[in-house]
Please model this.
Amino acid sequence: MDKHPAPGGHQNDAYGFVHLCQPFLLHSAASKGLEGNWLKLALAKQMHALFSRTPFPSESAESHKKYVTLGCGKTGMDAVVFLQCEIRVHLDGIGWVVPKDVWMLSRGQGSPYDWAKALVQKGLDFDKAALHLECEGKFVRLDADVLPTRF
Model:
């Protein structure tokens, strides 16, 4: 569980000049308009700026009837965890808009290299490769009833 005071994970702590471990493309932030080459590694200060533009609840949780989180990338998931664990908002008080479900790497199990290898093994069939990695415990999804369309 992320113990930081706000969504964004380790980006809250990283120095501004630190390049993070994944390119912009893998941070599920395309709709936020990060500038630069999508294949370059993200700078911590760029990611922090992105997360600081994400709307979060005001200081008074009691004044809100319902929160809405948009997207199911890391920031969206962190926001839902933040609302539940830090502000103690009941699940009924959280709306979550997930426009496109995503496959995620299982922490400590999978790597981006597994994805490339599985794609080649499965003849570049996205669904077969992803389901194969899920069976191996390397991929996970948010909702078992929805087949994700993105990685």
In short: Residues 9-97 form one domain. The two ends are 21 Å apart (CA to CA). Residues 57-61 have pLDDT under 50 and may be disordered.
